[in-house]
Design brief:
By secondary structure, the protein is mainly alpha-helical. It has helices at about 1-30, 35-40, 55-60, 65-95, 105-110, 120-130, 140, 150-160, 165-170, 175-190, 190-205, 210-215, 225-230, 240-270. It has one domain: MetI-like (MetI-like fold), CATH 1.10.3720.
Length: about 270
């Protein structure tokens, strides 16, 4: 009985894997097509002829500084992820371990903000960024989302799963609350911290709407906003778009390959205790 079920299970997994991977494969294949072949119908899975023209055009054209967009996105995503992890870890530890009046109310209010659609905050955030003279700077895409309600909830669940006896032992040895947090809690929370950092990095890396509003000059654009300029009202260069998408996907895929073990552990352990 196990053999047929195992065969069916693995067959379904292979089919689902092919369904999820096929868009990435088609994106990669299209990036190596010529302009005419990329727009051809029906679409083909094999470039004919094989060409690197799209990469040469997108990397050398003066109007599309893709490498600059890539650097802007990388700096913004890394800085934002670091701020999200820092602020969320401090708030989550306070809500998980410190006892003060109104703690549950504060946590409830933080969770309530998760139900607010982000698009509602575009205008207020734009006005604030404008008053701070951050428009057309990377600070505009780094700082406004540095406080993450999801990050606080996620890390709080993980901190609650850490045995309190470890912290009590450190407290008996004379460690201060900050020392316990830095030397005991954070090292034990590396899977959750890595997971939250990756999620924050992906959110900032893939953000399109906000950078379009606050970044104006071509050299300050991030990758998603910059790649949108490759489309015009009358024509779309699919080969260039797919080449840019491949360049934007490489860092994300590399990070996922190296951090997938931490992601699985962090997500699984965060749900152990409510």
């Amino acid at each position: 009985m196990r053999t047929p079920r195992t065969v069916v299970r693995y067959t379904l997994l292979v089919v689902l894997g092919l369904v999820f991977v096929s868009p990435l494969v088609f994106m990669l294949v299209t990036s190596f097509k010529t302009r005419g072949d990329a727009s051809g119908f029906p679409p083909s899975w094999i470039p004919n002829p094989f060409s690197t023209q799209a990469y040469e055009s997108i990397l050398t054209a003066p109007g599309t500084p893709v490498l600059r967009w890539f650097a802007n996105s990388l700096v913004a995503a890394l800085a934002n992820a670091a701020l999200v992890v820092s602020t969320a870890a401090l708030a989550a530890y306070a809500l998980a371990r410190m006892h003060f009046r109104g703690r549950n109310v504060v946590f409830g209010l933080i969770i309530a903000t998760l139900f607010v659609p982000p698009v509602i905050l575009v205008i207020p955030n734009y006005l604030i960024v404008g008053e701070l003279s951050w428009l057309n700077t990377l600070a505009a895409v780094i700082i406004p989302t540095a406080a993450s309600a999801f990050g606080v909830f996620f890390l709080r669940q993980f901190f609650l799963a850490i045995p309190e006896e470890l912290e009590e032992a450190a407290r008996l040895d004379g460690a201060s609350p900050l020392q316990i947090f830095v030397r005991v809690v954070l090292p034990l929370s590396r899977p959750a911290l890595a997971t939250l950092a990756l999620l924050a990095l992906l959110a900032n890396w893939n953000d399109f709407l906000w950078p379009v509003y606050v970044l104006f000059s071509p050299e300050m654009q991030t990758l998603p906003a910059g790649l949108s300029t490759l489309q015009s009202a009358n024509a779309v260069r699919y080969d260039l778009l797919m080449a840019g998408a491949v360049i934007a996907s490489v860092p994300v895929l590399v990070l996922f390959v190296f951090l997938q073990r931490f992601i699985i552990e962090g997500v699984s352990r965060s749900g152990l205790k409510g």
